[in-house]
Amino acid sequence: MRCRGGNVEKDYGYLEICLDELLKKKGLSKNKLSHKTEMNWKQIDNYGINSIARLDVNVLCKLLYRLKM
Fold this sequence. Notes:
single chain; mainly alpha; two-stranded antiparallel ribbon
């Protein structure tokens, strides 16, 4: 994960989740991670392409745990 931002008083920045990069490094597919985390494949895909509307900290922790981060 990367957090970027400019001047905090004007711009809080954004959180970029690089799940696709992590999956490549770990040699896992989204399908395999979906099974390991017992999560819907589409939800995994949305995290992979940074297309989530609201960050769910429990989901993020589950992903990091299964990726052994």
